[in-house]
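Shape matters. As here.
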Amino acid sequence: MSRPRVWLFIVGIVLTLGLVVWLLDSVNRLYVSIAFTSPFLANLLLLLIVVLLVALAGAIAYYGYLFLRPPSRPSRPIPQVPVEKTAAAEETLRAVRQQVEQIQDEVARQALFEQSRQIEENLAKREIHVVVFGTGSAGKTSIVNAILGRIVGQVGAPMGTTEVGETYSFRLRGLDREIWITDTPGILEAGIKGTQREQLARRLATEADLLLFILDNDLRQSEYEPLRSLIEIGKRSIVVFNKTDLYPERDREVILSRLRQRLQSFAPSVDIVAVAANPQLMILDNGDPYRPDPDILPLLRRIAAILRAEGEDLVADNILLQSQRLGEEARRIIDAQRLRQAEQIVDRFQWIGAGVVTVTPLPIVDLLATAAVNAQMVVEIGRVYGCEINLDRGKELALSLAKTLTSLGILRGAIELFSVALQTNVGTFLIGRAIQGATAAYLTRIAGKSFIEYFRRDQDWGDGGMSQVVQEQFQLNRRDEFVRAFVQEAIARVVKVGAEGERQR
């Protein structure tokens, strides 16, 4: 107990004793005066005063104990995984599995199922994954060696250049989780193998709970971009300026200042630390070689502070992020799968539309006839995208799009396009019928492609409306190489069929 508290306690005791003496004298006088007239009332009053004094003494003793005892440190609560984030990750995983079941490619489906299983296992395990990331010359392996050597003792065999992810485990005092640290291949290396190793390193980095981004100098643009992209997707990161023993103190402070200034928008200065994981060999005055111990404590302190304060959140956030990324991958595969199926439907119906117009030739392409074909096409495309629409709704959409084709001049443009293209490819008596059939097929194709975009956007034409989507598809499907190939197919499917029909007549 400190000296001021002792003096305060002594003064309090003296004042309390003085008050007690005064109170006893006053009670004695009151008792004598009452006992002279009524002994019973005097005894009752005396009993009441004694009870009050005992209660007062107990209260003084209790509060004196609270005052004198040393302040107790509050016990650290056992960290729990955030319930909301864990529940969100579990819900996302369930949604991903439902999506994966729709994938027809067996290899892709099994790969995504395996990834979802691994994420679920990581959610159940009490582990934190730290990944060391950076260029090949920045000293990533030295950082891992220094950390492990400081915490778990000397590492068996020193690691060399890392070509695959090397992973080691350790524990920190006060943290009820096992920590895994992974050394990754270097980024920005030349050649095919260098690119492949960088892809592996980036994948490991995106799966980290905590990322150590290692530099050995000021931040280059080629290093800034991967660091920025990883932080933007939610990777908790520490920027480590390594090899500080190679710089004079003034230069070291200049580089640190530049790093903090350049990264201030997404990395607080406390998360930028300077270390010397593998100091250079020195020669003493007597000629003996001497290697200083690794200066790694600033990094260890920052890792420990982050993991103790944020470890549970980091794990939950990373699991949720991996679940969301897996869901995006599943959606990408499903979208490509649906697109292939929908394009097969369009290819089939464009020649059905051409056949309808060819067997019942009219002076111009009958948009009402093609709209009836397009209505069934809309229904089937919608079914591919999980949108069950009836035939009446399909007719409404098909007629609306047919009017848009006319209002935009696409109908006339298509007729002119195929009139020129077919003039030199078919006989005169078949030109009119060939133009109608090929034009009908072409317009059905544009309609089908437009409806694919409509359903891909969850039955929404977008800000530009139907007209913009139709115009975009018309421009995409009027390229010279496409038109030439389309004309050749039209001749095979429409013109030759028409010629056989004429001969049969």
Summary: The mean pLDDT is 79.
